[in-house]
Amino acid sequence: MAKVPKNIKAHKFKDSRDAVDAIREIYEAHTQHLADEFVTFTEGGGIDRPVSSFYPYIKVDVKSASRVDTRLSYGFVSKPGAYMTTVTRPDIYGHYLNEQIRLLLLNHDAPVEVGVSETPMPLHFSLGDDYHLERELTQEQIRDLPYVFKMPDLDAMDDEIANSTYVAQQGKPLPLALFSAPRIDLSLMRLRHYTGTSAQHFQNYVIFTNYQFYMDEFVRICREIMSPTDNPELKKERLEYTSFVEPGNKVTVNRNLLDPDEGDSTGTKLSRLPQMPAFHLKRQDGSGITMINIGVGPSNAKTITDHVAVLRPHAWLMLGHCAGLRNSQKMGDYVLAHGYLRQDHVLDEDLPPVIPIPALSEIQLALEDAVSTVTGFKGYDLKKVMRTGTVATVDDRNWELRPSIRNNVLLSQGRAIALEMESGTIAANGFRFRVPYGTLLCVSDKPLHGQPKLPGMADAFYRERVEQHLQIGLLTMTLLRDIGPARLHSRKLRSFYEVAFQ
Q1: Which one, of 390, 397, 492, lies nearest residue 439 by Cα?
Q2: Nearest to 150 by CA among 108, 179, 173, 118
Q3: Is the domain covering 320-488 a CATH 3.30.70.100 domain?
Q4: What is the pTM of this model?
Q5: 11-187 falls under which CATH superfamily?
Q6: CA distances from 372 to 161, 355, 381 (A)
Q7: Fewest C-beta in 10 Å: which of 77, 225, 354, 363?
Q8: Distance (Å, rounded) from C-alpha 414 to C-alpha 419?
Q9: Are 76 and 103 in contact (CB under 8 A)?
């Protein structure tokens, strides 16, 4: 028989805060049990039987499918029955879980049950994302580890619910959320690996880019916001943000919030950036801005969005460069995607290319308003600097080397106005994972019209356009924050029988 933590009985709750407190109690007891037993194991203490801990679960038994506000796309179940999900990391998800449970109670007037699930908690996910387990062990201990502790099980980490391919088992509860606890924990660990920052720092509004130039400008702006000022109006704007986090979990606190003699930073900036560095301009309520340089290509775009999605952000945007496909476009013009010609292929099995990816009106209008405000062009004149249309996303950077007859026919039939390698993937994964998405690109070359991207042209373009493009992206996030998550999480993103949790 396995060695398990003390027994914590399941309880039903009518208050969301009490339910979250119970989740926290179970999670902390079970992670502490694993940590204590692991210390015994590493110190050579005798462990005569396997060690197990388990995730908390949330369950609700709904008698009637009703909802108080039919405009909201989440917070309710679509038919009577039992629903359940495992949960993890209440330190990160506490506010999120409180809101989701609150809506369940409001809509269905049925108590929510919290207890210990039958889903084992892998040791790797219980020690924190800064702990390198194998590095601390001898070869003999690494060999014995699977016989003592539960290892990550990929069978518990698939995306069947998100992909609408999940088949309910007879007599088993239906899913309450898109992701199981082990799937979430895996992504939280991967985010730390790829971005160099812990998941706790990620904000609800995420900007992806494929150029370090944008990151450098974002860092400059964030450091400026953190610096003290005597200007009352400027100080009021800066006080919206509490801190700025860089890879390595280097935290710089807003100096306008501190006494002059207080230290303003903790942690150590990494000497070498990770594969997809992330920087976070934080707000107290998590509604700040995270920006990530995902590099080039649809594989990177899928990798990072697979993992950011478990954090349930309120919106993500792609700001990047593209090839302009129309002769009427100028270098530096903006492209607002309202459709995607998906030739990236990395999501073909999970979301076939025949599935349309709709434009989301709230995102589109915010992007258009931001372009207008920053550039100064209004109404019909906005067409002088921005075009709305189909963006083609491909998986071949050297697409120009294919015979033009192969390239141009499909692009023309799809009415494509721009071509690049990430936006369609990011939008499609947003659609798949119910995360509001949008794309605003900037024309950096026109290879079909004799203007391929060359070093000198690119350098001049970057100097002139990066700051303005980023300012548009930041203003868009402010506008989306003002709209609020209830309106952003559109019903366009929900399937026939949708999970209750946003």
Answers
A1: 390
A2: 118
A3: no
A4: 0.93
A5: AMP nucleoside phosphorylase, N-terminal domain (3.30.1730.10)
A6: 39, 31, 9
A7: 354
A8: 12
A9: yes
